[in-house]
Design brief:
By secondary structure, this protein is of the alpha+beta class. The protein has five domains: about 1-30, no CATH class; about 40-165, Topoisomerase II, domain 5 (Alpha-Beta Complex); about 250-330, Gyrase A, domain 2, CATH 3.30.1360.40; about 365-465, Topoisomerase, domain 3 (Orthogonal Bundle), CATH 1.10.268.10; about 505-850, Neuraminidase. About 30% of the residues lie in helices and about 25% in strands. The protein has 19 helices and 44 strands. The strands form 13 sheets. Strands 35, 36, 38, 41 and 42 form a five-stranded mixed sheet that branches. α12 packs across α13. The longest helix has about 40 residues, at about 350-390.
């Protein structure tokens, strides 16, 4: 069949339809392949990615500068470089922001850029963007003739055909694309591993793929998880194609009422979390329903956490195998390492992919050196002419003064001094200030430095070995900046899939409220948990203490009557971000006459740490922690007590702390822990401070030297001093005056260890709570007078002070409990004003070996 094609001047050319279809389809196919779907093997970018980065660079959207609307970027890319749809450009920009899509995001976004749940990004008029720091490595030296430029679609502007990229971005962030008759699917990798392999290839151009595979063990997905087996990786790295078996990261945890829970914390790459939840829900209604009792999504901005609560009779191993079979907790990544090499699509192996980068980078280094060599030689030529003029400045001035025009002066200078036109022009443009001897010295130094760099640049231009050596050093520097740990763990693919206990694998944040409620959450969920969001509950309740533990750790609970109880952290039920938690006393067998005075996190009961106990009558006792290693269900005796004496608080130390005690009458003492000899568990201890007959100890701490102390009085006054203001003295003395009884008739009600950024809650006898920031209290000397902090109405007084890890629930500065609310007294308060403050717990967290830290919420 023949068709007729109309051309200019109404000429008709006969053409076979099959030939026309073939040519048109090939043209269309090549346009899609080269201009849209496949990345360039040199910089790992498709044209749309390259144009977005280049446009943002031209707009000045650099790291550290202000964000600009994504609409600005999209409009600039469309109007100048990319004549396609705005949705395609914006979707590409969104993906370059997403941390779950790119291993090293190239764009820094502000606003809603979608989520791993499959949520779409907000419209580009609502989001903002700028370049991420790593993107500058791809754009580096773009202005130094390092790459070729080509006219844009309408010929008004020029755009780079490839970026100079200092990083092997093709493998670093990977790529996905579907062309006509072909597709690419390249997984992301770890920067440190890729850069090490690139350096090895530079030093050993004839190395085998196996040598590079030893340095790049496999892909490193931004979502972490596992790769099961190495066969798919080896096939992909040798032939350019391979199937990689990905599996979610999960572990077992102890749930409430003796049940177990399967917790998923990392998903396979490019798997939608919402889809996973749907699949698990469907499985629970089918065969999986025999094992699953509940499914909760406890994920937040800090990480994924899907909790599958299991029935008591559930076979965990069978359930995991079932979920891997029926859901995308197990997924396959089909590697197709296809990219444009010299403008043609080519299947690459690992070595070839790295060779494309190395070859490109060597060319860029050579072109940059040639550019800098030309600039340096031109400048050296000018400086040489200026020095010649300065050496015979009188003659130069005479020639210039004797000339009628600048052109005639330039001609005379060139003839008399044998100068080039550029040198003559530089002399004529020289300011009079350059005629000084100092300026001559500067020009001499500049010329010497220029000659040195000219030699370096000439070596790089002429010697490939010099370029290879330079590139190796550059890659080593980049590895120090961008190298990080692997996220994806590669398993051998034989035996059973590992299911570690989350007790030891996961950090847990434990929070204790003023009214004695306790809850735990994954440490990754701590963000945004301050104030009322941290622990919901009654008016007047708030988080007093928060600390991070491992699942294998324990909480030691000390009581006023001298007993010690232990609660394994794994037995604490998990709470949500806004849940109130459970009453602490429900976890221990506590006598109705007794009360809790301290909760201490313990990593291990050994003889390298000590439990320090303080009593209201001024006694102190130090006992090795291993004495408490076998605490029974009902608790054990923690210390002997004298008549009418009670435990005030306790702390854990490493044996080198200083101890501070304060009395209600305003006396305070500080002495080394070493003055208290270690003694048995049931011993009563020794005198720490001499207490007057009508006085008692109201606070005891083991503060750090860099801390401050805040003493609060019943009249609403306070004083903030450095710990070092209390001079170290011997144990059992009367101490030194912290607050004068003449100054504060109501006495001291609490002493807290504080740091900048902390807050303190004053509790009034009316039930009101008043919150103040530590910064609002000026630091003073010990002998200085107190300052009024809380204004009290007539007849009112402060009864206690508390460290605040979150603002009191429902308060803003101060609050009065709702009269209709349940009586807070039905919850067991944690006794004592400063008896459970950050200073009390501080000694347990200062040491890195202990592996814990107090969180300032």
């Amino acid at each position: 069949m023949v068709i007729q094609q109309a051309v200019q001047h109404e000429r008709i050319l006969p053409r076979l339809i099959e030939q026309e279809m073939r040519d048109s389809f090939i043209d269309y196919s090549m346009s899609v392949i080269v201009q849209r779907a496949l990345p360039d093997a040199r910089d790992g970018l498709k044209p749309v990615h390259r144009r977005i980065l280049f446009a943002m660079h031209e707009l000045g959207l650099l790291p550290g500068r202000d964000y600009k609307k994504s609409a600005t970027v999209v409009g600039d890319v469309l109007g100048k470089y990319h004549p396609h749809g705005d949705s395609a450009v914006y979707e590409t920009l969104v993906r370059m922001v997403q941390e779950f899509s790119l291993r090293y995001p190239l764009v820094d976004g502000q606003g809603n850029f979608g989520s791993i749940d499959g949520d779409s990004a907000a419209a580009y008029r609502y989001t903002e963007a700028r370049l991420a720091p790593i993107a500058l490595e791809l754009l580096s030296d773009l202005d130094k003739d390092t790459v070729d430029f080509t006219p844009n679609f309408d010929g008004r502007l020029a755009e780079p055909t490839v970026l100079p990229t200092r990083l092997p971005n093709l493998l670093l962030n990977g790529s996905d694309g579907i062309a006509v008759g072909m597709a690419t699917k390249i997984p992301p990798h770890n920067a440190a591993e890729l850069l090490a392999a690139a350096r090895h290839l530079i030093d050993n151009p004839d190395c085998e793929v196996e040598e590079l595979m030893a340095l790049v063990p496999g892909p490193d997905f931004p979502t972490g998880a596992f790769i099961w087996g190495r066969a798919g990786i080896e096939a992909a790295y040798r032939k350019g194609r391979g199937l990689i078996d990905m599996r979610a990261r999960l572990h077992l945890e102890e749930a409430s009422r003796g049940k177990k829970a399967l917790v998923i914390t990392e998903l396979p790459y490019q798997v939608n979390k919402t889809r996973i939840i749907e699949q698990i829900t469907k499985a629970a209604k089918g065969r999986g329903g025999d094992a699953i009792s509940d499914l909760r999504d406890e994920s937040d901005r800090d990480g994924i956490r899907l909790v599958i609560e299991l029935k008591r009779e559930a076979d965990t191993r069978k359930l995991v195998d079932f979920l891997f079979k029926k859901t995308q907790l197990r997924a396959t990544y089909g590697v197709i390492l296809l990219a444009l090499r010299d403008g043609r699509p080519e299947m690459l192996n690992l070595k070839q992919a790295l060779e494309c980068f190395v070859s490109h980078r060597l060319d860029v280094v050579g072109r940059r050196a040639a550019f800098q060599l030309e600039r340096s030689e031109a400048r050296a030529h000018i400086v040489d002419g200026l020095l010649l003029a300065l050496a015979d400045i009188d003659r130069v001035i005479e020639l210039i003064r004797g000339s009628r025009t600048p052109d005639s002066a330039k001609a005379k200078l060139r003839k008399e001094l044998k100068l080039s036109e550029l040198q003559a022009e530089a002399i004529l443009a020289m300011r009079l200030a350059r005629l000084t001897g100092l300026e001559t010295g500067k020009l001499d130094a500049e010329l010497k430095a220029l000659r040195g760099v000219i030699e370096e640049y000439r070596d790089l231009v002429e010697d490939e070995d010099a370029r290879r050596s330079f590139l190796c050093e550059e890659l080593l520097e980049l590895a120090a900046v961008y190298g990080d740990d692997r996220r994806t763990e590669i398993l051998e693919g034989s035996g059973k899939f590992p299911m570690p206990a989350g007790d030891s694998a996961e950090s847990t944040i434990v929070m204790l409220s003023r009214l004695g409620y306790i809850k735990s959450q994954p440490a990754g969920a701590r963000s945004g948990m301050g104030g009322t969001d941290a622990m919901a509950g009654r008016e007047g309740d708030f988080v007093r203490e928060a600390f991070i533990c491992r699942g294998t750790d324990s909480l030691m609970v000390l009581t006023r009557l001298g007993h010690a109880h232990v609660i394994p952290v794994k037995e604490l039920p998990r709470g949500t971000r806004s849940s109130r938690g459970h009453r602490l006393r429900d976890f221990i067998e506590l006598d109705s006459r007794d009360s809790i005075v301290a909760v201490l996190p313990i990593e291990r009961f050994d003889d390298s740490r000590y439990l320090i106990l303080f009593t209201e009558k001024g006694q102190v006792k130090r006992t090795s922690l291993d004495e408490y290693s076998n605490i029974r269900t009902g608790g054990i005796i923690a210390t002997g007590l004298g008549k009418d004496d009670r435990v005030l608080t306790g702390t854990i130390t490493d044996g080198n702390a200083s101890l501070v005690l304060a009395t209600g009458a305003g006396q305070a003492i500080r002495f080394p822990e070493g003055e208290v000899r270690p003694m048995g568990r049931t011993a009563r201890g020794v005198r720490a401070i001499e207490v007057a007959p009508k006085d008692e100890v109201i606070a005891a701490l083991a503060p750090r030297r860099d801390s401050d102390l805040v003493a609060a009085t019943a009249s609403g006054a306070a004083k903030r001093i450095a710990v070092t203001e209390l001079r170290v003295q011997s144990r059992a003395g009367k101490g030194r005056t912290l607050v004068s009884s003449r100054e504060e008739a109501g006495g001291v009600v609490g002493l807290l260890e504080v740091h900048p950024g902390d807050r303190i809650v004053w509790e009034l006898d009316s039930g009101e709570l008043v919150t103040r920031a530590v910064q609002s209290l000026a630091q003073k000397e010990r002998s200085a007078a107190t300052a009024r902090v809380v204004e009290l109405s007539k007849g009112r007084q402060v009864v206690d002070v508390h460290p605040a890890r979150g603002a009191p629930a429902g308060t803003a500065g101060s609050a009065r409990p709702d009269p209709a609310a349940p009586d807070p007294s039905e919850a067991e308060p944690v006794a004592g004003g400063s008896r459970l403050d950050s200073a009390t717990l501080g000694g347990a967290f200062d040491d890195e070996e202990f592996g814990q830290e107090v969180l300032d919420l």
